[in-house]
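INFO batch 0412 | record 1 of 1 | parsing
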Amino acid sequence: MRVSVTQFVTLDGVSQGPGSAEEDRTDDFERGGWFVPYLDEAFVQAASDWLDLADGLLLGRRTYEAFARDWPNIPEPDPFTARMNALPKYVVTSTLTQGSWNPTTVLTGDPAEAVRSLRSRPGGELQIHGSSRLAASLLSAGVVDVVRLAVAPVIIGDGRRLFPQPMTDAGLRLVSHDSTPAGLLLLEYETTGAAPRADYEGSPALP
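INFO prediction complete | emitting tokens
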């Protein structure tokens, strides 16, 4: 399977609390709900197409518990409910011993090694939704294959960033890009290893 990361981010890289003011108040964050004004039919279709690629969901403990609380109670005909509830879930945690949102497998030990084992299996994608800390750590560990970003045209100026510093660098290759009528930028990248570097050898400075 390929490991993919799907994240909603602002132009200044914030991924915290996209869905509502109360979604994630960690560290007294008060600027949640910044993604919702830009939801439109084009984005819903794109997100549905991405979810069609999933053979499993890979989640951190905090996101897993929020999803396990909410998704079983979201009624049809929401376009995602049946698939989100039916897909196998893998939760990376040191505190849970079992899950309540079945089918769930609790991954213990080193997260990167556990994900490498899953990644070696045949299938589609193992998708990380939310779980920004897990996404960043696995990208640093070199076990992420695809990064999908839905970039909202807004600068929040506070909150947890998707890619914190410091972390291991990573090279990415843009494989698709689109925009929605509401203004979201949809970007898909494949990872290419370490970030490339070079020295500029253009025109020398004039004396």
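INFO post-check: The mean pLDDT is 94.
INFO record closed
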